[in-house]
Amino acid sequence: MKLRKAHHILYCLILALAFAGCKSKDGTEEPKKMAIVVSTLNNPWFVFLAERAQAKAKELGYESKVFDSQNNTSLETDHFENAMASGYDAILFNPTDADGSIVNVKNATAAGVPVFCMDREVNSNEAATSQILSDSYSGCVAIARYFVETLNKKGKYVEILGMVGDNNTWNRSKGFHSVVDHYPGLKMVAQQSADFDRNKAMEVLESILQAQPDIDAVFCGNDAMAMGAYQALVAAGKADKVKVFGFDGAEDVVNSIKDGKIMATGMQFPEVMAQTAANFADEYFKGKRDFPKKMPVAVELVVKDNIENYAAYGKKE
């Protein structure tokens, strides 16, 4: 373990020295570059987050590249090491795991490469240069109030959780339960993780329905899972009887709310988070060092009554 730690320290020192000498043959500094490391590109929401970060980096005049961690912390580590070895000067980061990703962030910052977390956080107040995060807890408080109202304070429901290693999973769940648990007429009959994945959520709910066929609602920790849950309900002939609630503001759920298939979602603003991260990196390159350790981005409740104000991943312009 000590040998491994020493290896990391040596690696970081070598990188730091390399970055200190990043000049072209004529003595001028090389243009700065931003690496965009995201948890997965298997979810349209994260694809949009990565695209918006890359577009903002380009607008600011920087080269960038997107790295897909495929929800794998080991692959994420490889991406960090490759990005640093390839001379990237900042990392715009969407972590795979709140605890497991800390070491990658620390190694980068030790090597003089600032890290700006987008949407997902790491469980360290000091590791990242800044963390730009949706206010998932408050967003799910709003969803829960609408959930209680829509179900008339009674009924059986299922909760489908996201990835257990992601703080967003628990912030959303805690926000939801901070309201719903005050109503004894509302009974949670099952709670299971589907890793923020649409197909897994469909399979999870199909299995739950075999044991709990008479549910009234499903609360899902993201919109991909909400769509998977809705598919399971369609297959079971229960789509018109069971109310589905999501979180994200993804395109298919925005359209499904219009069509009356999904009841509500929490609209996150990935473009705001992505652009803020890129702007912070730009400011860092220009000498700024004082950034908020955590910057919350508000989440807005989207339902059929206000759906015309929203498009996929944000408000209509």
UniProtKB/TrEMBL annotation:
InterPro entries: Peripla_BP_I, SBP_2_dom
Protein name per Swiss-Prot or TrEMBL: D-ribose ABC transporter substrate-binding protein
Pfam families assigned: Peripla_BP_4
Main location: other
Family, per entry: Belongs to the bacterial solute-binding protein 2 family.
Alphabetized CDD domains for the sequence: PBP1_TmRBP-like (cd19967)
Signal peptide (UniProt feature, chain positions): 1-20
